Amino acid sequence: MQRIFHTPEGVRDIYGRECRQKHELKRRIRSVFQKYGYEEIETPTFEYFEVFSQEVGTVPSRELYKFFDRDGNTLVLRPDFTPSVSRACASYFSPDQEPVTLFYTGQTFVNSSSYQGRLKEITQMGVERIGDDSPEADAELLAMTVEALLSCGLREFQVSVGQVDYFKSLLKEAGLEKEAEEHLRALISEKNYFGVEELVEEQKLCPQLAAVFQELPHLFGSVEVLKKARSLTDNQSAVERLERIYELLKVYGYEKYICFDFGMVSRIQYYTGIIFQAYTYGTGEPLVKGGRYNELLKHFGAPAASVGFVIMADSLLTA
Q1: What's the rounded Cα separation, in Å, for the pair 313 and 305?
Q2: Cβ neighbours, 10 Å, residue 5
Q3: What's the mean pLDDT in 51-62?
Q4: Were both Cys, which of 40, 146, 304, 314 would link to 95 (CB 3.0–4.6 Å)?
Q5: How far is it, in rounded angstroms, from Cα 218 to Cα 262?
Q6: Cα(174)–Cα(218) distance, rounded to whole angstroms?
Q7: Which of 253, 297, 258, 312 is nearest to 132 (CA)?
Q8: Cβ–Cβ under 8 Å, residues 100 and 133
């Protein structure tokens, strides 16, 4: 029998100088979270499948690592911390009485295609603010994102902010079939201008709505983009909230790190308001992903407006 001593595809060993640097990076990020008054939480590495099921809207089922316990229950290695923390919050806290502020550090596991060249086990650090629907909460998490990246020595980066409600209101008006909706979501996310144009023509949407969808991949940049977005739709509340968040970030002094992208649409379905991602030079994948998810805790029996973000520690270490 052949003996195998190398790691499986998608995972790796970290040792020596890199390992020391990673521990220092985690220490710096943790100090930022604690400075803002967030409490640490640890959740299990594996949970029942229902915590990450399709109804929750997290990673697709085919990308989950699934196995069975002795009683035949389906278990899953966590692909995402937010549903786990939401489940714990619904069990042990009362976000309807006062906001719950938690942070975490740990490994996540996603069985992505080997052709994507991504690690299948990554270290994530993140925060969740549960029970607070205010724009002040959104601004606080964006400020924490900027401060955490600065604390690790990063200077050249940008946090792109989008608005899921803006896009969802357009989809509702269009009344597309599920398959066409998912295809459009992917095309806009990829900034595939010609693909979007071709799809909306196939769907025979009214000229005004078709023009808005074709404009979305172009709708990114500085704060001036908000004026353009306001002129394209009747959904003024989504844009007004972004304007309020930007004014709050000016108080923090972090507005120079912020840009807006109305073509940002996540494959994670539980987002309901702002979504954001942080990028820097030399890394194709986001260093940070986050957003608002006001409907997720309903799945665990304790409805509460929530917002959070996660830092990809391995990508940040490379940056």
Answers
A1: 26
A2: 4
A3: 85
A4: 304
A5: 8
A6: 19
A7: 297
A8: no
Helices 178-189 & 164-174 angle (0-180, nearest 10): 140
Closest by CA to 96, choosing from 304, 264, 262, is 304
Token pair belonging to 157: 């980066």
Contact 230, 163 (CB under 8 A): no
Count of residues in the chain = 319
Q: Using CA atoms, how far apart are residues 77 and 53, in angstroms rounded to an integer?
A: 12
Cα separation, 292 vs 80, whole angstroms: 15
With tokens 């196939």, the residue in question is: 202
As beta bridge partners, residue 277 has 160, 289
* CA neighbor of 306 nearest in space, from 276, 271, 277: 271
Q: What pLDDT score was predicted for residue 188? A: 86
58-71 core/surface letters (b: 16 or more CB in 10 A; e: else): bbeeeebeeeeeee
User: Of all residues in the chain, what percent carry a pLDDT higher than 90?
Assistant: 64
Mean pLDDT taken over the chain: 91
